[in-house]
Amino acid sequence: MLRVDATQLLKGVLDLAVLAVLREEDGYGYDILRRLRAAGLEDVGDASVYGTLRRLFNGGLLNSYVVPSDEGPHRKYYALNEAGRAELQRSGKVWHGFASIMEDLLRERGKA
Amino acid sequence: MNLTAQDEIAVYVEGVRQALAGLPATVRDELLEDLPEHLAEVLAEGGGSLHERLGPPDAYAAELSASAGFVLGTPIEPPGDQSRIAATAARHRARIDRALRRADERVGPVLGYPRASEFLTLLRPAWWVLRGYLAAMAVAFMLHDHSSPLGLLPRAGGDDFTAVFLLTLGILGSIWLGRRGQPAARWPRRLFRFGTAFLVIFAVVGFFEVDSAAQRDSYYDQVSYTPGPGNPYSDIRDVYVYDGQGRLQVGVQLYDQNGQPIRLGEAICWDAHGNEVPIANPGYPYCPVQAPFQSAEPTAAPSGEPSGAPSGEPSTGSSTGSAGDSEKRPAPTTPPA
Question: Which domain of life is it from (chain A) (predicted)?
Answer without folding.
Answer: Bacteria
